[in-house]
Write a structure and sequence with these properties.
With about 425 residues, this protein is mostly helical. The protein is built from 13 helices and no strands.
Length: about 425
């Protein structure tokens, strides 16, 4: 209370209001600091993390869309799927450029590494475009067995058929008898077996069925058997037929070797190059890109989670701090108001009581107000004490004069 007594009333009042203002300012400043930190975290989430997550997700979407559109195009050859594939490839460049230019990616080495890995995978993925489109548009390029058959089997089969036709035509010119009739039937059987083998090859290239392989084997054996029967009748053959048969056998050996090689090619995992490419190269590459995108998104989500937790913590701390400051402000306000009002009102009440005592006619002029401090109330108390002292002196003088007059009056009465 001593420090309050050194202040005047105006200073006491202003001190009380000043203390309240300080508390209000403290609450406002703490709230502003917390809001500023909150704003920073919100900006990080909305302007850095969220765009990065959206760009990475969009990139993954276009990669998967391009891959699926490519698969549908390879199966159906529809132009709409090809257009969708090419459109997705074009959008990959746009989204990837946007992702690479994000400030957050530039500032964080881990994210930058992920984006570089993704960019490398995307560029590699795009490099398959011309190759897969060529496979889709060229059956010979796409199916090696077909190309091999066209180069090695078809010309040889045609030559063998020509040899068969020449042998049959030569037989027509000979005189027909029972032996030659059997020879002609064997020649026709050879031609029919060869044609059936060719049909079996075509069916196997189209359907890869076991029945086609069985057909090729069956008619190849039938053709070999016919050749063996004809070779048992060399005397029946003309010179041209014997020469043609010799050429046919030589071609037949090569033809059989090429059939086996064709079957090996067409039964391998590379029998269809587009499927093999998708399965062994493009598919794993897409999965690898997806893993890098997933790692990047997980990293961004972890940062978003950490930032969100920090944001929630800041909000909670702000609420607690503001609550504490409000409680302290209320307590300090009530305490300050009580002390200030007491410092002002208590001396006034004492002065009022002393004045009422004097004004009542029974006052004790010897009483004085205890003065503490140097404020207006203390000055009023000093003035009152001075006034009471002067009144007391006047009363004393009047009492002394009255006593003298009374004594003189008594003396006169005696005389």
């Amino acid at each position: 209370m001593d420090f309050l007594s050194a202040l005047n009333v105006k200073q006491k009042v202003f001190s009380g209001f000043g203390l309240m203002q300080i508390l209000i300012v403290a609450v406002a400043i703490s709230a502003l600091i917390s809001l500023s930190a909150t704003e920073t975290d919100v900006v990080v989430i909305s302007e850095d993390i969220q765009p990065a997550v959206l760009s990475a997700t969009e990139l993954q979407y276009h990669i998967e869309r391009a891959n699926s559109s490519l698969g549908f195009y390879l199966l159906s050859k529809e132009q709409s799927h090809k257009d969708s594939y090419l459109e997705s490839l074009a959008k990959l460049d746009v989204v990837l450029g946007k992702l690479q230019n994000l400030q957050m990616v530039q500032d964080q080495p881990l994210l930058k590494d992920h984006v570089n890995e993704i960019a490398g995978g995307v560029n590699q993925f795009k490099q398959y475009r011309d190759r897969v489109l060529t496979l889709a548009e060229s059956r010979d390029e796409n199916i090696p067995g077909v190309r091999y058959a066209a180069v090695n089997l078809s010309p040889r089969a045609q030559e063998m058929l020509n040899l068969m036709s020449m042998m049959i035509q030569a037989e027509v010119e000979e005189e027909l008898n029972a032996e030659r009739r059997k020879l002609l039937l064997d020649l026709e059987g050879m031609r029919y077996a060869l044609a059936s083998v060719v049909n079996g090859i075509r069916a196997y290239l189209a359907f890869k069925s076991q029945s086609s392989l069985d057909e090729i084997k069956l008619y190849s054996e039938s053709m070999n058997a016919a050749v063996s029967r004809i070779k048992l009748k060399p005397d029946l053959l003309t010179l041209d037929q014997a020469d043609a048969l010799e050429q046919f056998e030589a071609q037949q050996v090569k033809f059989s070797e090429h059939i086996n090689e064709m079957i090996n090619i067409h039964s391998s995992e590379k029998w269809r190059m587009d499927s093999y490419l998708i399965r062994t190269e493009v598919g794993p590459l897409v999965n690898e890109i997806g893993k890098h995108v997933e790692k990047m998104v997980d990293s961004l989500r972890n940062q978003a989670s950490s930032t969100s937790k920090a944001l929630a913590s800041q909000v909670g701390n702000t609420i607690s701090l503001v609550g504490i400051l409000l409680v302290v402000g209320v307590l300090v306000g009530f305490t300050g108001s009580f002390l200030i009002s007491r410092a002002i009102v208590s001396p006034l009440l004492k002065t009022k009581s002393a004045m009422e005592d004097i004004a009542s006619g029974n006052g004790d002029l010897t009483q004085r107000i205890k003065v503490s401090g140097n404020d207006e109330i203390a000055q009023l108390a000093n003035a009152f004490n001075l006034f009471a002292s002067k009144v007391q002196e006047i009363v004393k003088e009047v009492s002394s004069i009255t006593s003298g007059v009374a004594s003189a009056s008594e003396r006169m009465t005696v005389v």
